[in-house]
């Protein structure tokens, strides 16, 4: 007998049909999203996130990029804005007030990745997570800045971590108490571990293992079978935060439905990067 906390969604039928069919009908009520990411050596993530959020049905979105790439982008991306950057092309810590101002406009924030490795960016992201208390999704190398004993992402409300299993292993091993995730473990074992972890912390996890996309929140876990799409983390993070913003009172059902929406045949390939890259 399967545990009651494990909710299995099929590839052909959404688990929560009422959530699928009760989305906002106009852009004005479909959510506002701030996307933050990029550095002068890596600009793919914010473009993919912007395109995926539009495809997922976000009402409006705005992209914040380090100003080191201003010359490469120019004025071709109307939804983009530039913030202070370090000499190496990553976000500078002095960009914090501009990011907070944009976050106050938005209903939620997506830290899309391509941040690079920079000590100033580390300070910036830590302060952002501390000062901003709204819904947040974080993926790719943005997560690397928060792999520590007491990660703020595991004690912060409304924070969705979208990660592959390798990065999730590092996050859980660094936590206190640590939890061992192995690539060889069964789907059943991973579901049980995520049930325990998300009951004991505020962590919300979206990952992939054994041909299933897995979402865990407050002890509830859903699984959805599907192919492991290349670079799935960024676009699925955009889908997850979009659906979450549109139905926050049913966050578990909304993110599970976002996975189903993402895996629909017309979406089963990485979204093309927008003009931002």
The gist of it:
With 277 residues, the protein is an alpha/beta fold. It contains nine helices and ten strands. The protein has a single domain (6-267), classed as 3-Layer(aba) Sandwich (UDP-N-acetylmuramoyl-L-alanine:D-glutamate ligase).
Layout: helices, strands, pairs:
Blueprint: E1 6-8, H1 17-20, E2 32-37, H2 44-56, E3 60-66, H3 70-73, E4 80-83, H4 96-105, E5 108-113, H5 119-131, E6 136-139, E7 159-162, H6 165-174, H7 187-200, E8 204-209, E9 212-217, E10 220-225, H8 233-246, H9 251-262
Parallel strand pairs: 1-10, 2-3, 2-5, 3-4, 5-6, 6-7, 7-8
Antiparallel strand pairs: 8-9, 9-10
Helix pairs in contact: 2-8, 8-9
Keywords:
alpha/beta, single chain, 10-stranded mixed β-sheet, 34% helix, UDP-N-acetylmuramoyl-L-alanine:D-glutamate ligase
Description:
- By secondary structure, the chain is of the alpha/beta class.
- The protein has a single domain, classed as Ribokinase (UDP-N-acetylmuramoyl-L-alanine:D-glutamate ligase, 3-Layer(aba) Sandwich).
- It has helices at residues 17-20, 44-56, 70-73, 96-105, 119-131, 165-174, 187-200, 233-246, 251-262, and strands spanning 6-8, 32-37, 60-66, 80-83, 108-113, 136-139, 159-162, 204-209, 212-217, 220-225.
- Strands 1-10-9-8-7-6-5-2-3-4 form a ten-stranded mixed beta sheet, sandwiched between helices.
- α2 (44-56) crosses α8 (233-246) and α8 (233-246) crosses α9.
- The radius of gyration is 18 Å and the shape is globular.
- The relative contact order is 0.18.
- The model is unreliable at 268-277 (pLDDT under 50).
């Amino acid at each position: 007998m399967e545990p009651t906390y494990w909710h299995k969604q099929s590839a052909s039928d959404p688990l929560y049909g009422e959530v699928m069919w009760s989305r906002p009908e106009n852009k004005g009520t479909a959510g506002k999203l701030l996307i933050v990411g990029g550095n002068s050596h890596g600009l793919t993530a914010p473009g993919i996130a912007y395109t995926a959020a539009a495809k997922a049905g976000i009402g409006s979105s705005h992209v914040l990029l380090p100003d080191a790439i201003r010359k490469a982008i120019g004025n071709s991306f109307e939804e983009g804005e530039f913030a202070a950057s370090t000499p190496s092309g990553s976000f500078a810590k002095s960009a914090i007030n501009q990011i907070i101002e944009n976050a106050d406009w938005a209903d939620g924030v997506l830290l899309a990745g391509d941040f690079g490795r920079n000590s100033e960016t580390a300070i910036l992201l830590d302060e952002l997570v501390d000062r901003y208390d709204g819904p947040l999704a974080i993926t790719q190398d943005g997560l690397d800045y928060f792999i520590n004993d007491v990660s703020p992402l595991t004690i912060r409300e409304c924070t969705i971590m979208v990660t592959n299993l390798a990065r999730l292993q590092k996050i859980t091993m660094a936590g206190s108490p640590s939890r061992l995730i192995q690539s060889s473990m069964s789907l059943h074992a991973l579901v049980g571990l995520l049930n325990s972890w998300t009951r004991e912390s505020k962590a919300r996890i979206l990952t992939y293992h054994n041909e299933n996309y897995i979402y865990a929140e407050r002890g509830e876990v859903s699984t959805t079978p599907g192919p492991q799409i290349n670079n799935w983390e960024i676009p699925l993070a955009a889908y997850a935060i979009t659906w979450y913003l549109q139905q926050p009172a049913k966050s578990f059902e909304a993110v599970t439905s976002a996975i189903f929406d993402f895996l629909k045949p017309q979406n089963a390939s990485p979204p093309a990067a927008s003009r931002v890259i």
